[in-house]
Amino acid sequence: MADAYDLTIIGSGPGGYVAAIRAAQLGMKVAVVEKWATHGGTCLNIGCIPSKALLHATEMFEEAGHSFKALGIDIPAPVLNLPQMMNHKSEVVAGNVGGVDYLFKKNKITPIRGIGTIVSAGKILVTPPTGAAIEIETKNIVIATGSVSASLPGIEIDEKTIVTSTGALSLEKVPGKLLVIGAGVIGLELGSVWARLGAQVTVVEYLDRILPGMDSEVARQFQRMLQKQGMEFKLSSKVAGIDKQDDGSLKIRIEPAKGGDMEIIDADVALVSIGRKPFTEGLGLDIVGVALDERGRVRVDQHYKTSVDGIYAIGDVIAGPMLAHKAEDEGIAVAEILNGQAGHVNYAVMPAVVYTNPEIASVGKTEDELKAAGIEYKIGKFPFTANGRAKAVLATQGFVKILADVETDRVLGAHIVGKNAGEMIHELVVLMEFSGAAEDLARSTHAHPTLSEAVREAALSLGDGAIHI
């Protein structure tokens, strides 16, 4: 017997579970189809959450080994207990996943285990791990199946020595030499985790810079910081192949991106982190006529509706930055749209964070984008070396950079490199959401002593000048 729902969501990652909760809050009868044994998708299980647990743990390890002495704390050199560190990661994941289960029960959302295939608009066939398939009747369908790691031709992932982010989060020992393929967010975050634990990390990037898409000045200065931490970079280079040796080690063939002599690099582990691609396998989209774009993403209109009435899509599976919070906002928006409300996401004010040490956070336009668009802008900058709290907590690396329109003083973009940058960026998100000017921020009192004072000082420098520099 088919069950009837107002909304059925395929995928329980940040986009899917948030859409489910919001729809349930608005009175809809909701089901969520999930093929994994746990809810939360890539983010909670093998992405955002476990990586942050390891990032924090390794930062504490590094602080204990390098910073405590300067603070007057004399302890023996810290000893790594990698199994316990991994156990901490697993406990964090379990707590977050359990939280989603609780929220489903609280909001009377029906979880259905299995692979969901769209039979037609209004019908989903779910194939469970065991037992017979069941058919679900539903007024609306939201595709929230997320993304998977992109692969390189001819390179076979085994998640032991040649790994994606999934394997890099579960290595059984610290590799002596780690080669990271791709200088994007994932590669730099996970590379920094293992570098702090003692791995010799080399990053290979096809482009002539790290962090493509971020402000180029931020990328240049941040690369220098990572190099001081011991990470090596081979830019404008590509991996031509990886050869596994009998002893389990790797020989990696690297060539200049534009052609030239090949170089062989030895490594114990290679992390393939060249980006992610939408996951639509097994959904039956071609059968029901849901259109994809040239990059395999589901095409949607401004209301997240696909080419088929009653079928919607959100998150990594559609165009836009592959960010968990972007998917969450789209989940809320599509649930509200289905209930006749004006659900909306402001993509122009979407923050992005790199959770390295120091962190990088940005929102809005980069200098590169403003130059390309011919927009006249002014720059306000303030270094953390001039911030009292940063000196006190040994966090003087980095700076705040604010870009504002020359004529209107409206803030067009902001970029922070520094400790807790991911937390500090949000006052700029709120300011830009309300089309605020740099002067609005400069006239807002900031508590002293805080790292956030550097944000205000950068705004002050767009006017008559910063106070403390």
Description:
The termini are far apart. The protein has helices at 14-25, 41-46, 48-66, 82-106, 165-168, 185-196, 216-228, 285-288, 324-338, 367-373, 388-392, 421-433, 438-442, 453-460, and strands at residues 3-10, 30-34, 110-113, 115-120, 123-127, 134-143, 147-149, 162-163, 177-181, 200-204, 232-234, 237-244, 250-256, 263-267, 269-272, 276-278, 311-313, 352-354, 359-364, 377-383, 399-405, 411-418. It is 32% helix and 25% strand. It folds into 3 domains: 3-149 and 277-345, 3-Layer(bba) Sandwich (FAD/NAD(P)-binding domain), CATH 3.50.50.60; 162-274, FAD/NAD(P)-binding domain, CATH 3.50.50.60; 349-460, FAD/NAD-linked reductase, C-terminal dimerisation domain (Enolase-like, domain 1, 2-Layer Sandwich), CATH 3.30.390.30. The longest helix is centred in the N-terminal third of the chain and has 25 residues, at 82-106. The protein contains 14 helices and 22 strands. By secondary structure, it is an alpha/beta fold. The chain is globular. A hairpin with a 6-residue loop joins strand 13 and strand 14 (263-267). Strands 1, 2, 3, 4, 5, 6 and 17 form a 7-stranded mixed sheet that branches. Helix 1 (14-25) packs parallel to helix 9 and helix 3 (48-66) runs antiparallel to helix 4 (82-106). The active site is at 448 (proton acceptor). One of its GO terms (molecular function) is flavin adenine dinucleotide binding. Keywords: Disulfide bond, FAD, Flavoprotein, NAD, Nucleotide-binding, Oxidoreductase, Redox-active center. This is Dihydrolipoyl dehydrogenase. FAD binds at residues 52, 116, 145-147, 316, 322-325.
